[in-house]
Design brief:
The structure holds two protein chains of two kinds. Chain A contains seven helices and two strands; from the N terminus they run H-H-H-H-H-H-E-E-H. Chain A is mainly α. By secondary structure, chain B is α+β, with helices and mostly antiparallel strands. Classes of the chains: A mainly alpha, B alpha+beta. Chain B: Heme binds at residues 123, 127.
Chain lengths: 244, 150
């Protein structure tokens, strides 16, 4: 962890890792999506519309997991002030928001043929929408407070942004528990510690797409971190040139 | 204590306090955050006629009867703790069927029949190929009886 906190060392590892994660993830997700569309049986009740779960479920996991990663990065930023932690938080926010949005969009498309509605304000949907807005708020706050209290120099985030990222994490367990605590239109959890209520024939491509999208997410985060570091370097050089 | 240890302790205490307060808030919210009320909730709280609510539960097997106009239906909804008759005129979702979950928006009439304006289908968390359906319905895990009433 400490070894990686050095930007130069991080870049040395991140450079070869980025294409591996991105291409490997995209490949796995493509194979999983193909398998989910052609190689699995339709659901007994929902028919072919069940196949959207191979995108919807990984998108939901990554939307929530992304914020957990972001919150850990924010905690690291607050406590240890590692130069890379704030950059990592900022890099996670955009793909996290994209996946949360993808979850909402695919859920809406799935809800119409099964439940008979595009959108209802039940606990699961509302709390997921809040997560989407939290991402938007984090991105806006990080940009608005650029260059404040030192930490934001070099592409990091300000302290208030880090605190926002940490506080926002309380929403993630609420999303997870929303279908257990309250009556909701969304069904209960299919995959729990006790096993899965998705038949194995239908389940297996989900492992491919979940892993694939996760690797892709990690690849995008590394890409964005490298871009932020490069941008900060350019800015620092411009400033030096302007001063000279 | 070094400054960063102080920050760590402070941050962890803050996270603990936030999680605790969020948990308290959510438990205080309780049933008011529920998307629908089950027949047993209705039986317990006694909802006056004319008040708009959402009613959710399992459509009883063999209870759907269709009216002569082709779009009016009557059925009963239960959750193990109560049973409510429902009347609806309109088009139901494809997944609306006997032995499956549903959520209806509407109000109770003075005769105790729930008059629905819209009906949504609610499915459970199980996904399986068509062939397995019979195994499960005849087995011990009767479909849908576990999920809706929670």
């Amino acid at each position: 962890m400490h070894a990686l906190a050095n930007p130069a060392r991080f870049l040395k590892i991140a450079r070869p890792l980025t294409p591996i994660l991105t291409l490997g993830g995209a490949g796995l997700a493509t194979v999983g999506a193909w398998a989910g569309l052609t190689q699995t049986p339709a659901d007994y009740l929902q028919g072919d519309s069940v196949r959207i779960l191979y995108v919807h479920v990984p998108a939901a996991w990554l939307g929530m997991g992304g914020w957990m990663g972001l919150a850990i990065a924010c905690l690291t930023q607050i406590v240890w002030r590692h130069p890379l932690a704030g950059i990592a938080a900022r890099a996670i926010a955009v793909p996290g928001m994209v996946f949360a949005g993808l979850c909402l969009a695919t859920g809406s498309i799935w809800g119409r043929p099964t439940w008979g509605t595009w959108w209802e304000w039940d606990g699961r949907m509302t709390s997921m929408l809040v997560l989407f807005f939290l991402y938007a708020g984090f991105i806006a706050l990080a940009r608005a407070s650029d260059g404040q209290d030192g930490a934001a120099e070099g592409g990091g985030i300000s302290r208030v942004t880090a605190i926002f990222g940490l506080v926002g994490a309380v929403n993630v367990p609420i999303i997870n528990r929303s279908v257990v605590w309250w009556n909701s239109l969304h069904q209960g959890p299919s995959i729990t510690l006790r096993g899965s209520s998705i038949a194995p024939e239908i389940l297996w491509p989900l492992a491919l797409t979940a892993l694939g999208f996760t690797l892709l997410f990690a690849g995008i985060v590394l890409m964005r971190m490298r871009a932020i570091l490069a941008g900060a370097k350019v800015e620092a050089r411009m400033r030096r040139m302007a001063a000279a | 204590m070094k400054a960063k240890h102080q920050r760590l302790v402070l941050a962890l205490v803050a996270v603990g306090a936030m999680s605790g307060s969020a948990l308290l808030a959510m438990s205080a919210l309780g049933d008011r955050a529920a998307y629908f009320q089950a027949p047993s909730d209705v039986a317990r709280t006694g909802i006056e006629p004319g008040r708009a609510i959402r009613l959710g539960g399992m459509v009883d097997r063999g209870s759907i009867s269709r009216g002569g106009d082709g779009v009016s239906i009557r059925f009963t909804v239960s959750d193990g703790g109560g049973r409510v008759p429902v009347r609806f005129t309109g088009i139901t979702p494809d997944l609306f069927r006997e032995g499956s979950g549903m959520v209806a928006e509407g109000r109770f009439g003075s005769d105790g029949v729930f008059v629905a304006d819209t009906i949504l289908a609610k499915h459970d968390e199980r996904y399986m190929p068509p062939g397995m359906n019979t195994d499960v319905t005849s087995g011990s895990a009767s479909p849908g009886t576990t999920t809706v009433a929670r």
